[in-house]
Amino acid sequence: MSVSDKHKTAALHPNEAERLQALRSYGILDTAIEPAFDDITKIASYVCQTPISIVSLVDEGRQWFKSEVGLGMRETPIDQSMCAHALLEHSFLEISDTTKDARVANNPLVIGDPHLRFYAGALLRTPDGLPIGTICVLDTKPRQLTPEQREVLAALARQVMSQMEFRRALLLSDRLQRNISRLMAVAGHDLKQPLQVMVMAIERIQSKLTDPRDKERLGYAVNAGLRMAEELDQLAETSALQAGFGAPRIKTFAISEVFDSIVNTWRLHAEQKGLRLILMRSRARAVSDPAMLRAILGNLVGNAIKYTSSGRVLVGCRRRGSFVSIEVLDSGSGIPAGQLGAVFDAFHQIDPASEGLGLGLSIVRRTSEALGHAVEVKSDLARGSHFSIRVPLAAVSAKL
After folding, report:
1. Considering only CA atoms, which of 60, 66, 98 is closest in space to residue 82?
2. CATH placement of domain 251-392
3. What is the CA angle 284-286-289, rounded to 5?
4. Residue 259 near residue 295, CB atoms below 8 Å
5. Which of 25, 106, 138, 314 is the most buried (most CB within 10 A)?
6. pLDDT in tens, 53-87
7. Which helix (DSSP H) or strand (DSSP E) does residue 216 occupy?
8. Topology of 16-171 in CATH?
9. Quick check: helix, strand or coil at residue 131?
């Protein structure tokens, strides 16, 4: 490869806006040094025998380091980022001699201090397939990793994402709790009104009764209703204090926008496995939160690619009255009947030897519940799996 005289800044990822949104959803940028991440970079340097190792997160205009060994800085401008080039690869980038690679030969960190000559980075990818950074190792002399070292670096990348997924799970749990509190606050307020009407009706009947025992019995009902109203007041008050996280941002949008984004993210992964990623075009307009729906479909498509060794993954939709059923079908090995009931559980792996944390389908379930969208799964060990999500159609929607 010929080397240009001009330094080449990496091109932006095809889904750059969504990639940045995913990165920021972890709440990790500009946080303090943490031993859990430092241990990972130390292991990377030791195993790969390099003086420098980094957990690098590629932000807008910069790359920020959650952990670093041997570099002595926490961030660099994006035009000095080798990791930004790695984001455009499928899973791994290795440059044996930086002076001979046109992408980085004139990088300021190559032509100046610390005169980097070697780079290898394993991608950090979200469950829905978006690359947000790397764990990388660097050296001041040309070299090449062994297959075993590459395998360890990839394993460490998964460990970094495990740490980050747990961090985000805690954030989501906190937000979910706030949403529950908000719901309880609304329920406490809304349920009180029919209860008051009921108490008033009972009192009216009670005033017309002549039998003291009947009056006494209805008195118990009135007192119970009043106590319940007080408890609802307390529930609304307490829950309102805990509420504060906003509801999903529901709006009307073209389903094709979400479909195009999903295909851009996952096409390369499908091609690497020799799979056909087929998109059935639709002119339908849905009513949902597009970012949350994108997360659901991204996880479903990523899961389908993960468990399909040959054939195709198909994404399409069908009208079902006032709803649209968005469907993801694959030609994989299918899900055993005994596991169908647990596929949406957190940390459940259909294949225990597969990569990832088993959080993808759990995220699908939690997100769909937050949106009020029903998700179903059918599977045949001979034909593959079929996931569908039921989303409201816009009042006036074009034919599918």
Report:
1. 98
2. 3.30.565.10
3. 145
4. no
5. 138
6. 999 999 999 999 999 999 999 999 999 999 999 99
7. helix 212-242
8. Beta-Lactamase (3.30.450)
9. strand
